[in-house]
Amino acid sequence: MENLEYLTKMDKKAFQILTMDSINQKDETSYWLTKPPIERFIALELLRQRFYEYETSSTRFQRVFSVAQQA
């Protein structure tokens, strides 16, 4: 798989903060449809991580289940 690290880097000079009223929904949809599925998936994952305040430093314990037989 090719190196997709460039997708996670944000060029802070190349973006704008807009209101929801100023965004044209058709332009937004057509933009994302021009992107390959892997780029769309990475963008979606980044949004999910920001929304849920994902931290890579906090790992979770794996749940382990064992079945005990009754005597």
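^ that was protein a. below is b, sequence first then the tokens
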Amino acid sequence: MAKKKKRGLFGSTRKKQPRGRRQSKSPADERSNRRMLGLDIGRDDQEMLSEFSDDTNNFYVDERKERKVRRKQYAAEKRERKKKEKRKPLSPTQRKLIRIMSYAVITTVILAVGIILSLTVLFKTQAYEVTGSTKYSETEIIEACGIGKGQNIFLAPKRPAEKKIVSKFPYVEEAHVSFKIPDTIKIGIVEAVEGYLVKVSDTEYLVISTRGRILEKAADKGGYNLPIFIGPKPVTGEPGDYVSYEDDTVLDMIDSITQTFADNGYQGITEIDATDTGDISFTYDDRIKVKLGIPEELDYKVRTAMTIINENIDKNKTGSIQGVLDVSRCNSTRRSYFNEQQLHPTEAPTQDPSQPSTEPAVTTDNYTWTGNDDYNTGGDEIDLGYDYYDEDGYGHYW
């Protein structure tokens, strides 16, 4: 029997497709076919929604995401409300502290503004005030300081100005530059005090201040009522420099002697001789030579010598006694020696041979002062019996 042909769904016979590679369809055709058959409606809706849900279109809102965001915001606001409810009110101390801090901030801002204005706009130098100078004119001092008009009185270089003034003028021991509001520069001068002369040669002397500064050069000692220092030649000799020696002990010795006189109110020292630094001496009132010996305990030796002169040798203050006082060993032996002799003996007058000879003009108790002899032998020995001297220079009997 003949086989019956199979019919298709609608009674038509299906043609067999040739075996081999099937013809592929494009994605658009696939979608079109599925839409016609109603098989992919949900997918097309999803694709349509995705096309209108980009950042430039607000047609679509994800409601679930929005609800999550709103829940988070609500939870955060709730937590903040609870914090505020738990927070305690500020105490009076806290409120006071806050006010103080506020005032401090305001004050700081005001001060900052004031400082800026002071340094940039206000307080310009317009006047000068010079005090204390007698050797130099105010114009010279003002020109030397280097602070010109128009400079801010706060920013003006005051310390460099002081150095300029001192370095230019030898007789200015110190200079102090300050300001006076609103527009004045004040310059205070401390003038140097002449202390002594240093003999460089018979025709050259250096005037030294009490602080050791060379003030000027002089051809002779006339016109200066100052003690003369005779000793080693100084290393420096220009006005404005500070006198110095190769041996540092020389300056210490001079300072000790002059300072002792100043501290105790002694007057009348006329010469200090340190030609031999192991046998120092000074001359008092140009009539009593005081031998100090080595530069050791000079303050004690000077006070001892002045006590002996004032209380024993010339206690009546005649001002006529001359001689040599040796206190070089008084610090160890408590003994001093004095020879009453003329320090500057005059030549005996020429006598007529027919006239009888007279006694030598410079003779005391079997000892004749020649200016070179060792006067410690054969002279008048003064043992004052002092056991020690106090800090005021007065002796005490033991």
